[in-house]
Description:
9-stranded antiparallel sheet, 9-stranded mixed sheet
Amino acid sequence: MSVRLWLPLLALLSVPALAQQAPPRALDAEDLSIQNFLQAVETSISTMERQRWIDLLSPAADRDQALEFFEAMVPQGITRVVVKERDRSPLQGTLPGEGFRLVIEVFMETGPRGRIATWNLDIRRPRGDDIGSQPWRIVAEDRLASIEGLHRLSLNPDKQYAAKNLVLRAIDFELRLPAGDVFVSETPEGVTGMVLIGDGTMVFQPMPKQEKGQLKLFAGVEALETPFTSAFVRISPFELEQRLGQDMLEPVTVDTRAYRRGLAQFEENVPKSFNLDLSDLSREVWSLLPQPGDFVAEVKTRRFNDLTYARSSGEAEDVTLFQRATKRNISAYASEQKLASRGRFFDEDDLVDYDVLDYDVDASFYPDRSWMEGRTKLRMRVKSHMIGVLTLRFAESLNVSSITSDEFGRLLYLRVRNQNAILVNLPQPLSRDYLMTLTINYSGRLSKQSISEESIRIDQQRNSQPDDIPLVAAEPKWLFSNRNYWYPQNQVSDFATAHIRLTVPSEYSVVASGITEIGSPAAAPSVPIEGSSRVMLRTSYSFVAPQPVRYLGIVISRMMRVDAATVALDIVPAKAPPVDMRGADSLVQQITRLNQAASIPPVGTRNTLGLSVEANRRQEARGRDVMYTAADILRLYSGLTGDVPYDSLTLAMVEDDVPGGHAPAYMAMINNAPPVTQLNWRNDPAAFQGFPEFFIAHELAHQWFGQAVGWKNYHEQWLSEGFAQYFAALYAREKRGEGAFRDILRQFRKWAIDDSDQGPIYLGYRLGHIKGESRVFRAVVYNKGAAVLHMLRRLIGDEAFSAGLKKFYADNRFKKAGTDDLRRAMQEASGKDLNRFFERWIYDNGIPRLRYSTAVEGNELVVRFEQSGDIYDVPVTMAVTYGDGKTSEFIVIVDAATNEARMPLSGTIRSIEANTDGAAIALIEKK
Ligand SMILES: [Zn+2]
């Protein structure tokens, strides 16, 4: 099978490398004899001499077939060959040490071209008089896989061009060079690289309005037209003519000094994209050719330093502008072509090749060395039409020692350097619905994850405290979750069931995504402590996640079980709906669907939840208190959604200098301040003074939104954070009353108004990204997101909102949702067209300006609102205070250029106020 490597955007923007695996060890006589034999294989290939190959064959080999293999595998014109052994196993039907099945990698260069092939060679010791000079003979050979189309690019020293009003075009992008030097890098197919030197102009004009806004934050303008001094471009060799007009390049005599300047640019930039580092096969830079339509430009601008423009046709957002030095995405969007092919919205799942059905992780962790050893088994189903290479996401610092599949045995894999990725070469292409089990063994150092996604975190602000106050160090803890790829996993979060077994030194305990299994914790075999005669006592913790989770999280610390109880929930049991078979075209899909339905209780059928609390010793008292709060919160949320997605929840009350939390499925980690700490937090979008339960209320809501209901791509993250923030506010209302709720609404409004100019809610993590301000992200995605949900509720009414919420949750439980799914559920529940509401509030970032006037007509108060520009749907609370001090409120739905509302009066008016609850995200003034 031959594989064309398609590099995802990430690979394109950093420097991927194939790294090899075999750990160094002392060579024994057998190793040496096999090395000698492989040397002979290498010679036979490099000389391309059939006879040398024939000399390596055993009399038992099929000679014709072996020759055919050699002819097919070994191209003419080989200039260099490297053969490396990757795996060795006993050959069936031979005595120990008499025969082996080798897996080898063969790297063949023919001038500037390269290919890697992986072969099986079955070898035996020769018998009788057949010994000759070789200790081994080939009995059978087979090709497992190959990677073709590698190019060692160079800048042609014999060609130089003068630019004549050169314009090089890509989507929304141009490089203009009126005059200057141009050098090229060619393959037999044509020009794939160009260096442009001279006073040029780079033009970047993103089409989408929001991208113009982001570009303005970065560069101060909505369309960038900026001088450059040099540029390096990679294109498909078949596209030079369509990107470049005629007569723009005039051949000139090569000027050595100019060429040297071009060469410096070439060498600096060629390793940055479409590039493979082949590790022990070759130390040189090997490049792939861009696919037609793909394009990368590395541009040295005068004002913005190095900027990278890329068009990557395989990505959902195919046009990007990137600043490598700061690792910031300035632009990322779908071109018009892409939108035409995929529609306005996309699901990241549509781009992955396989679906993981179940993870089984069995690992040991040694906190003193931050060392992990483990084995993960993935049960997966192929999703794409056909795949030859699987990409797994996995921490780069963890070394993989083997990957095997139940179906194919040992598999070849390539590590991608500077990236948390493994490429697994499949022995044959697999087609859709193929079920496969992969087992990956690994070990290495793993650093803990800092909380960020799916968590509240505060920008820390140090108090200026005198130095003589002793500080108490926070109890150490290790969090491994969705950001540090501590187990091999799909490239995007992927709903799957799971088993986790984690073994730790006995003084630690573990909280993880899952229900604690019966018999856990249990004593595990002790291990010797290095440099000591003592042993380390260890304990194993086991968890099972029968309901699908998006990712697995664990926290390890010195914790004790504080309390455990079963919480009775207030859910009206629902009748089990029929299994949804839409989209289940094949038998395998139908069986999978039915099995899932059988193992996961339908929405609303579970009416209790196991709640337990583990805490660091100093947090024991807080741990006891939190049981009641958590039970209250869980009851409220299960009532709001009509379901509880997971059977159990464990709270880990840990210490940290920075307040915050993190909430994978089945668990929530809550940071508590150590007894004396230097840090303080104020003035952050996620901090609500006077409401200490806010963090925990936010984190627990993620069991429903963020975990059970995922999001389709980064744009949709507000569905997780906005709902978590809104649910926390609703809990504040229940626990502390309307006043506390309104305080929170007013803070939501303030943050939303202050930071909406940074972009729409739909921009997700990119809010504040260009300037490195995570505060902006929380202000808009969390707080404005929550405020928008509350406005929606006021617009369609409590009843419709409640029905829509339940429907949205039920339709999307254990799936990834998008804003359009929420819109549809709310439209169905309310009978209202909500397109404009979502268009303005989620996809756009304006703040409506409203003016109102009031008049008394007879016994009625008449309120008139006006808004200009884009029309927003904004429910506004009006409060009338009467002469006797009583106040009554009513909501005016502002949804047109002018709106009028009437309210019967019951006394003389003392005052009238608008937006008294802070619920309207609008600037409102009285005429
Ligand atoms: Zn959150």
